[in-house]
Amino acid sequence: MPPYGVCYPGDQSLRKTSEKSGRKGGKSAPVNEADDGLLAYRAKRDPAATNEPFAVDARGGGKTLNGRFVVHQHAATRMHYDVRIQIGNALRSFAVPRGPSLDPADKRLAVHVEDHPLEYLDFEDVIPEGNYGAGAMIAWDTGRVTYLEGSAEEGLARGKIDLALSGFKLKGRFGLIKTKRDPSEWLLVKKQDEFCEVGVDLIERAPRSVYSGLTVSELYRAREVVAEHEAVARSMGAVERELDVSGREPMLCSTDGCDLDDPARLYELKLDGVRIVAEKHGQRVNLRYRNGRPATLNYPEIARAVRALPAERIVLDGEIVAFDPAGKPSFLRILPRIQARRPLDVERVREQVPVVYLVFDLLQFGTLCLTELPLVERKRLLLGVVQGKGYLQALDHLEGTGKLLFELTKRESLEGVVAKRMRSKYHFGPVRTDDWVKCKTEREDDFVVVGHSPSRGQKKGVRALCVASYRGADLVFRGRVGSGLTDQAVRALGDRLRELEQPECPCIGELPPDAKAATWVRPELVVSVRYLGWNESHFRHPVFRGVRPDVDPHSCTARPTSEIEDEFEAESPASELVQLSNQDKVFWPEEGYTKGDLCDFYAAVSDVMLPFLGGRPVVLVRYPDGIAGKNFYQWRAPAGTPDWIRTFELRDDEEQEVKGGKRAFLIDNQAALVHIANLGCIPIHVLACREQSRELCDFLTIDLDIGEQPFKNAVLLALTLRELLAELNLEGFPKTSGQKGLHVLIPTGGIDFDSAKLLVELIGRLLVARHNEIATMERRLNKRGPKVYVDTGQTGHSRTIVAPYSVRATAGATVSTPLLWDEVHVALDPSRFTMFTVPERVARLGDPMAGLLKAKPDIAKAVSELGRKLG
Fold it and tell me: What is the mean pLDDT of residues 227-236?
């Protein structure tokens, strides 16, 4: 749990109750372990009567290594808790009568009930009377689940699931253990770790929803709760008025410093997050950044929590924050959330960067406008409306003195405090008043010396240093520092500064008037400066601390948070980071898919594709007019390629450079990937080596080319190949070809290409020998007959294979998609993996091929075993 009071992210009678089913109390047998998808869930519910989510059948294939979880507190016939963990494409659900515990001594009965759809992760409501499970249900906890001893499916099969939860309340290792007396009965236990709390009743201590902040009883009487808050607000003097916050800047802080011991002020932590004004109209929720830009899509979990608040109309002011590993608010940590635009990007970074909304003001509640009320009264209302430690948390404060809080911020290297007059009204920006004042802690950073101002009068020497920091490749002037610059320091710097003098200022942009008379120097000297934050792009109250000869000038990148925020807020999705053209041009005529769709796809899957592509020469197959037009292979990066895209000179062998040169692309980042897609590159082909180890092959390729043969034959060969590789102590990673067949990539750890070609050839022969009735290695098409071609010729110094997640120039825009071995079966349909389905799959499953280049097989042992089999 982060410091400073912020959280982020059985009994027999219930078992009998859980066996009741039917929409109005019919009976059913306990749920068995067979995976019947959501059939049981739907059979018990009437979609015309219940408010619970419905979903299509979601039987999941493959292995689940992580996902999301939710714990519901459910006031049904009997109060109980439902622990739901994501396994495959559904939530495996367990009814826990006494609720979870953090005490390892507690062993809680967990009755396996029907699976629930993933949409249940966000469910919180009162299920109407007459429906199965009628009663109030709150999301008591939610977060991420990681399975620790194999997949969740394997844990289910052995009757013991070892898992780690990362929620607001439940943290650390837990176990679900099946009992012997009944197949539907399990035990939920807490494992020993740093999150254990012996003798603590977690249910009593933390009874509130992580969405609405309500208890289960308050949810049932939500209208009464709202009326109680409105009555309190009216008694304070709140008036009936609709507050329009659209296009208005929130209240801003002065930066003039403050009294930390003022009985008329309250003191809050200054947060290192993003300022957000949240408003709710019925079920419609809008989140806006300080500049008015919409933020709702970036933080869906926060929007969901605001929507769960019981008032029909509400306006909040606060900051959304992410925490670093030390539990401190970190603006740099939240940057990916600001940058994400597309739903798949948002979902991906949501799992990586959990956030909470720390609310420090309440501007409207119901029909009542609160901006004219004193802050201390608004705070009192806020603490009643926003409760609990979930996605929404009311920011704590101290009244009358901020000294202890400020000392804490200095000790913990936090931003500082904000001092607010307790009787102040809420004044919208952009005008700043001293009602709210920032008291920032000192910072210390390194800056590059770019010049100096001479002393005035007869005294010669340096009066102040002009310093800058890098923003990308550019130096930006940050101010002058003279305080702390002793005579001894000036003498030590004098000769060095004279050696570095140059006529022009090395910084970009307009300089302030007091710097224009400076003597400029080459940016080679680094100094340490202590300062009190920023005023626009210049630091405030700087003090010279000393010269830093050990620091590279290009590492000096200190700059104000607002400057970083502006950069990321200005950025569009990754496809807009490069100059794009003709995005509406149709590349797939039958489907109407465009070049823009292609660029968007490669941006969406870049996180799983780039680890494989990075540092690996690629060959483009370009379709400038789409799949119905002409196409050509392109080894050489064309003229006009941006200089920020790296290239690599290919050679046919170690001795002789290719005549004319083949300077191939190296795709190291998302922008480069989108750039080649914009060139009309549909499939991307790669070599089996990297730039720094051109002579070493890091994976073998076996291409199961079915031609006109049934796909099931490729599946049979792939499964046999898996067995064969296991016998050789090797591992295979399957993927669809994106067309008709299957590819299996075999990591080598890096061996020479001659050995690689021999090894893959021998493996191919063994595979064909086991299935010579359906497989062949005959390369001549007219000699193959009705068999699957086991192609081992894709392994070679200059041989390429279509990259994982590469789109193919075929109808439907199918994708060469990495598979889990459990997905390789005769019913597998490669055509369902397309430009539009794979991003969601990646967001849900991650990358099945992630371990390919991390494997370090014992090739010598494999060769020895291979020789034994062939001998």
Answer: 96
d(CA 538, CA 534) in angstroms, rounded, equals 6
Q: Which string of DSSP letters, residue by residue, matches 155-172?
A: HHHHTEEEEEEEESS-EE
At 314, give phi and psi (nearest 5°): -155, 145
- Residue 418's H or E segment, with its range, is strand 416-421
Instruction: Give the C-alpha separation, 454 to 450, whole Å.
Output: 14
Residue 871, classified by CB atoms within 10 Å of its CB into exposed (0-12), middle (13-18) or buried (19+), is: exposed
Pairing of β 135-147 and β 66-75: antiparallel
Residue 480 · residue 566 · CB < 8 Å: no
| CA-only gyration radius of the chain, Å | 32
**What percent of the residues of the chain are helix, what percent strand, and what percent coil, each to the nearest 5?**
25, 30, 40
Does the predicted TM-score (pTM) go above 0.85? no
The answer, yes or no, to whether residue 5 has pLDDT greater than 80, is no
In degrees and rounded to multiples of 5, residue 269 shows phi and psi of: -65, 140
* Secondary structure class of 233 (helix, strand, coil): helix
Tokens of 441: 């802690």
* Cα–Cα distance for residue pair 217/79, rounded to 1 Å: 11
- Quote the strand ranges of 24-103, DSSP E: 66-75, 79-87, 90-96
CA pair distance 483, 543, nearest whole angstrom: 5
The owner of tokens 């550019």 is 474
- DSSP tag of 855: -
Q: Are 171 and 76 in contact (CB under 8 A)?
A: no
Which residue in 395, 419, 557 sits closest to 476, CA to CA?
Answer: 557
**What is the Cα–Cα distance from 723 to 139, expressed in whole angstroms?**
45
Whole-number pLDDT of residue 75: 93
Cα of first residue to Cα of last residue in the chain, in angstroms, is: 61
- 353, 393 contact by CB (below 8 A): no
Give me the pLDDT at residue 456, please.
Answer: 64
Torsion 574-559-556-409 (CA) sign: negative
What angle separates helix 753-770 from helix 711-727, to the nearest 10 degrees?
Answer: 120
Please write the tens of the pLDDT for every residue from 679-727: 999 999 999 998 888 889 999 999 999 988 988 899 889 999 999 999 9
Residue in this structure with the two tokens 């109750």, named with its chain if needed: 17
Decide if 812 contacts 831 (C-beta within 8 A): yes
* 178 alpha-carbon distance from chain centroid: 33
Report the b/e string of 167-195 with b at 16+ CB within 10 A: bbbbbbbbbbbbeeeeebbbbbbbeeeeb
- What CA–CA distance (Å, rounded) separates 312 from 223? 10
Spatial distance between the Cα atoms of 184 and 19, rounded to a whole number of angstroms: 10
Tell me which residue of 376, 287, 295, 358 sits closest to 322, measured CA to CA.
Answer: 358
Quick one: three-class SS letters along 597-657?
HHHHHHHHCHHHHHHHHCCCEEEEEECCCCCCCCCEEECCCCCCCCCCCCEEEEECCCCCE
d(CA 794, CA 800): 6
Residue 430, preceding peptide bond in cis (omega within 30° of 0): yes
Supply the DSSP string of 448-484, one letter for each residue. EEEEEEEPSTT--SEEEEEEEEEETTEEEEEEEE-TT
Q: pLDDT tens digits for 79-99?
A: 999 999 999 889 999 999 999
Please give the DSSP secondary-structure letter assigned to residue 692.
Answer: T
Distance of CA 831 to the CA centre of its chain: 28
Contact 687, 620 (CB under 8 A): no
* Of 13, 137, 11, 17, residue with least CA distance to 77: 17
> Whose structure tokens read 């060095």?
496
Q: 62 in the Ramachandran plot: left (φ > 0), alpha (ψ -120 to 50) or beta?
A: left
